[in-house]
Amino acid sequence: MRIDKPLLQVKNLKKYFQTPGGMLHAVDDVSFDLLPGSTLGVVGESGCGKSTMGRAILRLQEPTSGTVLFDGTDVTACSKRELKALREQMQIIFQDPFASIDPRMTVSQTIMEPLIIQHKMDRRDKKGLERKALEIMELVGLAPRLVNSYPHELDGGRRQRIGIGRALVLRPRFIVCDEPVSALDVSIQAQILNLMQDVQKQMGLTYLFITHDLSVVKHFSDEILVMYLGQMVEKCESKRLFAQPMHPYTQALLSAIPVPDPRVRMQKIPLKGELSSPIEPPVGCRFAKRCPYATSACTQKAVLPREIEPGHFVACVRAGEL
Amino acid sequence: MDTILEVKDLVIHYETDDGRVYALNGLDLDLREGETLGLVGETGAGKTTLARGIMGLVPDPPGRIKGGEILYRGTDLLRCSNAEMRHVRGKKIAMIFQDPMTSLNPVTNVGVQIAEAISNHEHLSHRDALVKAREMLEQVGIPAGRAEEYPHQFSGGMKQRVVIAIALACNPDILIADEPTTALDVTIQAQVLDMLRELREKYSMSMLLITHDLGVVAQTCDRVAVIYGGEIVESADVFSLFERHLHPYTQGLLNSIPKLNEDVDRLQPIEGMMPDPTHLPEGCKFCTRCSYATERCRTSHPVMREVASGHSVRCFRYEQEERHEDR
Ligand SMILES: Nc1ncnc2c1ncn2[C@@H]1O[C@H](COP(=O)(O)OP(=O)(O)OP(=O)(O)O)[C@@H](O)[C@H]1O
Ligand SMILES: Nc1ncnc2c1ncn2[C@@H]1O[C@H](COP(=O)(O)OP(=O)(O)O)[C@@H](O)[C@H]1O
Ligand code: SF4
Ligand code: SF4
Ligand SMILES: [Mg+2]
Ligand SMILES: [Mg+2]
User: Fold this and answer.
1) Exposure of B290 by Cβ count < 10 A (0-12 exposed, 13-18 middle, 19+ buried)?
2) Domain-wise residue ranges, chain B
3) Which of A104, B7, B97, B114 is most enclosed, with most CB atoms within 10 A?
4) Is the peptide bond before A97 cis (omega within 30 degrees of 0)?
5) Which residue, by CA, sits nearest to atom 16 of ligand 1?
6) CATH architecture classification, B3-92+175-274
7) What structural domains and CATH numbers belong to chain A?
8) pLDDT tens per residue across span B102-138
9) Does A210 touch chain B (CB under 8 A)?
10) Which residues form the pocket of ligand 3, taking CB atoms under 6 Å from any ligand atom?
């Protein structure tokens, strides 16, 4: 591991939502560092807070508390104007970019919009905008003839290329990728993952890569952060996590991935019950109700991540012993 | 093993404003008694259309069944009356859809919904049907005490179990499951698949499992059929298929997925994308994306050819191959 200064430092980040049933702890006290040029994969069950965490880091949603340092600047303390300037460096790619984009805009308008919002280019400079759009389209592998197409005319793979182009146009340093390939067929998924890897190398990008596909995350990430009900339960180098998962939830999760080889018989670790509610969660380990190793010590006080071995964080009172 | 369901040369088109969508183009498939057959292919390949075709639920318009046969124990379902098809759907062939909410009624509690499915084919009093519904819930791993709850009170995995309970309530011969776990997390997916496997054995059903997840296929199915452009391009038992995938499309699919036990720098995607279903290529439907394509592939259409016992492939590359009987 390199001894660079982290590009991103997340400290005790929390995002709570007020709901009719009480306070919902979507992201609850998550801390981690991210080195420049690396990829941190974020995995966990539906609703465990992955997207909320990604949005809170970018302040697309106001965090409840905690700090986010981007290259030393405190994102959470920025004014609106400072934040807008920071947006140039921090971008996001969504699962379906057109869920959040005007369907009446053409491919080039969609890709160029961030430049116009940031006053980097003038809306009236049609020639210049088109030249720049074609440059980005080439970078993300879109044929020039599509420059004036509309989103509904394109398939999912091409739409995602536009989403990536739009995120790259400002030459950011950091991108939150929220399930960028989940909606795509495997053959197209591989094309997009390769593209994202290529531009990462070319532009020295740092990724926070959210997904629920564990094979994809292993292939794509340097480090992996496992979330459970709003909390980070384990984080370490990607290969290490798969070779030696230490948190009982991670162990069960990895054991449940169907192996694409009929000769391999899986040894699944069965989990009792289902995801419990993130509303007013009880103290102690949130996995205790489903954990095969739970003891009374697990529910007495908050279970915080500990560095069990260098770079390997685990939030379990019995970590290391199991 | 006997064949319980045989689909022969099925052709289904959708007539749309943008032209004719060639969804199924002479599809052949046989499901054997007691087996789980996996049907794999990407979005738009025609998987759901096939499932709807078997169930007699192709929306018309725009769907049109242009030809073929669907033989269930020798009877052609395409020639059955609506009343006969209702009987088949109620008692013989059941289907689970991808999104559980499309098959659940949000304003009726789950116990009553299962009881209704039971009453559809068994003459039971309302009270007896409710008792049986509670048993079914326990069968799929949900405490009977939750029978009075409504779908929105259940998680995705629990809703899918209720859907399975409804499908099994009529004790069908055949269960068609269209991506039953795609919307679920892996730990829940594992529970649902295990449960389907147990129930299939217990009720000695045959199952057609539609999925795009090759891991699910490897772990759940006895045989596999790969569908592309509305036709089967390769079929084999699950061990032969993963050992020796022959069709360039099947090879492409397996190369595209990242493997947990191998580290590669770059994935090998299939180049290009699915052809426009209103303008499928004339020859081999895969020729626009195939790196082995020749002139002949672009003009003539390859047929299915058995290259090893039970292993068939639709590709000119295997024409010369002798059939091996060495398995
Ligand atoms: N605006 C909101 N108001 C109230 N609750 C919210 C809001 N946004 C998210 N939540 C809740 O916060 C929790 C985390 O949601 P989030 O979307 O971050 O999950 P996720 O891990 O991204 O899930 P998925 O894998 O399904 O995308 C969930 O319980 C969700 O219902
Ligand atoms: N109701 C419909 N009207 C028009 N086209 C349809 C309809 N349903 C499916 N199709 C088209 O038929 C083809 C096969 O679709 P489908 O059977 O749903 O594929 P799969 O389930 O494999 O994703 C696709 O091109 C799809 O767009
Ligand atoms: S803290 Fe206790 S309940 Fe939680 S994961 Fe560890 S052993 Fe299981
Ligand atoms: S028939 Fe030709 S184009 Fe089709 S899969 Fe075989 S080699 Fe490729
Ligand atoms: Mg999300
Ligand atoms: Mg479908």
Assistant:
1) buried
2) 3-92+175-274, 104-171
3) B114
4) no
5) A49
6) 3-Layer(aba) Sandwich (3.40)
7) 8-89+172-258+265-314 (3.40.50.300), 105-168 (no CATH)
8) 789 999 999 999 999 898 878 889 999 999 999 989 8
9) no
10) A 248, 285, 287-288, 291, 293-294, 298, 303, 316-318
